């Protein structure tokens, strides 16, 4: 695609990372039922692929799926932490082993908001799995139990991540050409 400057993570690299995450999760949740709680819209694909990878690596983990949606104000680079719950889970998480699945963690404010919100609902356990970690600009400490790949400090799109609602369906993670990506204060929907 001509809008892309460079592929940062290929489809094969993403698949391998998800497989590694699934193997680690399967070990930790052996004999349990885990709710993969995907954060829409960005984590749609990673949640689906992680769920299927978990089923394929272990028959001894029962996987349930749920989703919530958040939006946050900020510029196109990262969230401001003013996160808003746009759509809640469809089932109660009380007493359940919940694994939040996120596309990317950058300053950490979105995940922190979710951790605070969900820990107040008395889950049996609460952890986070994130495909892409950008550890360079953290504003809050937030524990991430499972990390897929460490992402360069670039604005990336693809595999669920958008720029102005475009590029989510790319099978790889990529950097946009600078003519396309103009980070001037605007709303980011995760
Ligand atoms: P945080 O709150 O940790 O800064 O970032 C979480 C959210 O910011 C992500 O869910 C995503 O919406 C947005 N974000 C952070 N970095 C990127 C990026 O490189 N590309 C895209 N498309 N969104 C990002």
Summarize the structure.
With 190 residues, the protein is an alpha/beta fold. It is built from three helices and ten strands, in the order E-H-E-H-E-E-E-H-E-E-E-E-E. It has a single domain, classed as Rossmann fold (3-Layer(aba) Sandwich), CATH 3.40.50.
Task: Give a structural overview.
It contains three helices and ten strands; from the N terminus they run βαβαβββαβββββ. The protein is α/β, with parallel strands linked by helices and 190 residues long. The chain has a single domain, classed as Rossmann fold (3-Layer(aba) Sandwich). The strands form two sheets. Strands 2, 3, 4, 5, 6, 7 and 10 form a seven-stranded mixed sheet that branches. It has a three-stranded antiparallel sheet with strand order 1-9-8, with helices on one face. Helix 1 crosses helix 2 (44-57). The longest helix has 18 residues, at 11-28. The protein is globular, with a radius of gyration of 16 Å. Guanosine-5'-monophosphate (5GP) binds at residues 42, 78-79, 103-111, 155-157, 161-163, 188, 190.
Main sheet characteristics: 7 strands, mixed
Low-confidence stretches: none
Catalogue the ligands.
guanosine-5'-monophosphate
Q: The CATH topology is what? A: Rossmann fold
Keywords for this structure?
10 strands, 190 residues, 7-stranded mixed β-sheet, alpha/beta, 3-stranded antiparallel β-sheet, Rossmann fold, binds guanosine-5'-monophosphate
């Amino acid at each position: 695609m001509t809008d892309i400057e460079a592929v940062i993570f290929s489809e094969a690299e993403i698949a391998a990372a998800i497989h590694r995450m699934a193997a680690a999760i399967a070990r930790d949740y052996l004999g349990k039922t885990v709710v993969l709680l995907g954060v829409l819209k960005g984590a749609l694909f990673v949640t689906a692929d992680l769920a299927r990878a978990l089923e394929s690596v272990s028959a001894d983990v029962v996987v349930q799926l749920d989703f919530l949606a958040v939006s946050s104000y900020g510029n196109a680079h990262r969230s401001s932490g003013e996160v808003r719950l746009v759509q809640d889970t469809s089932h109660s998480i009380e007493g359940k082993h919940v694994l939040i699945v996120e596309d990317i963690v950058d300053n950490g404010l979105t995940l922190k908001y979710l951790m605070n919100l969900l820990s107040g609902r008395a889950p049996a356990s609460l952890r986070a799995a994130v495909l892409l970690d950008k550890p360079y600009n953290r504003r809050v400490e937030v524990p991430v139990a499972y990390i897929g790949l460490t992402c360069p400090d670039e604005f990336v799109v693809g595999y669920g991540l958008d720029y102005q609602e475009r590029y989510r369906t790319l099978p790889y993670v990529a950097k946009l050409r600078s003519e396309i990506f103009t980070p001037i204060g605007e709303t980011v929907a995760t």
